[in-house]
Amino acid sequence: MKSSLDRQCVLLLAVNSLFVLAGALSGTFLSVYLWKAKQDFTMIGWFAFSQQIAIGLTFWIAGKWVKERDKMILLRLGIMISGIFYLLVLFVGTRMVHYIWPLGIVSGIGAGIFWLAFNVVYFEVTDKTNRDLFNGWVGIMGSVIGISGPWLSGWLISALPGEKGYRFIFTISLIVYGIGVLLSFWLKKRERGGEYLWLEPVRRLRAGSPWRQAVPASIAYGVREGVFLFLINLLVYISTSSEWKVGQYMLITSLVSLITYWAAGKWLAIRHRYMEMLVGAVMITLVVLPLLWKVSYTTLIIFGIGTSLFMPLYIIPMISSVFDLIGLDSKDAEYRVELIVLREISMMAGRLAGIAIFICFYSRSPHMTTILWLMAGLGAAPLVSWFAMRKLLVT
After folding, report:
1. Which residues contact 118 (CB under 8 A, 6 or more apart)?
2. How far apart (Å, rounded) are the C-alpha atoms in residues 307 and 287?
3. I need a surface site. Which of 22, 78, 81, 226 has the fewest CB within 10 A?
4. CA-wise closest residue to 278 among 313, 319, 323, 308
5. Where are the transmembrane segments (predicted)?
6. Angle, in degrees to the nearest 10, between helices 41-68 and 100-125
7. Distance of CA 141 to CAs 22, 87, 250, 338, 375, Å?
8. Which residues contact 196 (CB under 8 A, 6 or more apart)?
9. Inter-residue contact 122 to 10 (CB < 8 Å)
10. At CA 284, angle to CA 46 and CA 244, rounded to 5?
């Protein structure tokens, strides 16, 4: 059994980190870029909605290729399509607001293909003994990137006049994606699986299956994530009118995440997952409350630091427990692609539900108060996650 990360794990971490870095450099400010072109929360919500639809459908359809053919080709294709998205953004510029759906779909296809291939390869290069360690390192690298990427982007956008800063960071992202494609050639080709079963995810929802608990938990996780991913950085910009402040916000919160993910990877134990996830879910729910009092850079910093402190307690036990189900026995492992598709479609359904709730309520009552109460309500979804899968966390 593995107890540390071998060379393939390290290479996969590096490819993942480059993909995340490219997204952090440009994706962090994408909602701000859209907002400056057209101040419309609903439009930005629809962009996120189109992304999530594309991600979910891509997972389901591309699952056949990942299982029956070369996973590495798909991994590289996901990186390349993500690069093409930013190439299109460079081409259309602020006219992007007129192409929300097609651009969102391109972005979602790239992300969906990459994360499907990544998650399958991640499952194959890790096992139950080093999965928490790998996830901890993913969090650490994500935090390091979260510190450096948005800070650099915020500084460049603020320093360069007009759209020059945005165009420059979009170009840098293209280059980083290219480096990620090159590095992926050092990853070993994985063995092909058997026939892809399109309806296997549905069959896993039968009575008595542990997936009857894992799927609702994944949906609840997505409900919060779908809205918070595009909304938080935008609120920081609206509160400060400064991309530099957005970068500073990401630097501070990611620095805290770096420390907490390092600690989580070092000290989280399988036997403690039940309480760890409960504490994490409760605390990331409570940290939204200061925003109900006042939306300011200070209260957003409190929210960001609180989330960074407790998110590892919530997310690492959840991710590891779900992937442990995939490797529960040799028969389940044969269906790892279908089960990863089930996990991702579940999270996509949650993200779509959260975004749809946001668009529906905000369209009827377009006020900041509506946004804040939605954040408080949707921000409590992690408690539902824990409740749904609490029995799976007991070992």
Report:
1. 12, 15, 16, 19, 75, 78
2. 7
3. 81
4. 313
5. 12-35, 41-61, 73-93, 99-122, 134-153, 165-187, 221-240, 246-264, 276-293, 299-327, 348-365, 371-389
6. 40
7. 13, 26, 14, 28, 27
8. 63, 64, 67, 68, 337, 338
9. no
10. 60
The mean per-residue pLDDT over the stretch 206-215 comes to 85
The single-letter code of the amino acid at 116 is L
pLDDT band at 1 (very low <50, low <70, confident <90, very high): very low
Residues with Cβ within 8 Å of residue 139, at least 6 apart in sequence: 257, 260, 261, 264, 265, 312, 315, 316
d(CA 160, CA 32): 16
Listed by start position, the domains of the chain span 7-186+204-393
Which tokens go with 278?
Answer: 């409960």
Provide the sign of the torsion angle of the four alpha carbons 343, 345, 349, 355, taken in this order: positive
Residue 32 CA to residue 34 CA, distance in Å, equals 5
Q: Phi and psi of 335, rounded to 5°?
A: -105, 30
Tokens 């990877």 belong to 265
Would you tell me which CATH number, out of the four given (3.60.15.10, 3.40.30.10, 1.10.10.10, 1.20.1250.20), belongs to the domain 7-186+204-393?
1.20.1250.20
Question: Whole-model pTM?
Answer: 0.88
- For residue 62, how many other CB atoms are within 10 A of its CB? 21
pLDDT average, residue stretch 347-370: 95
Describe the chain by its helix, strand, coil percentages, rounded to 5: 85, 0, 15
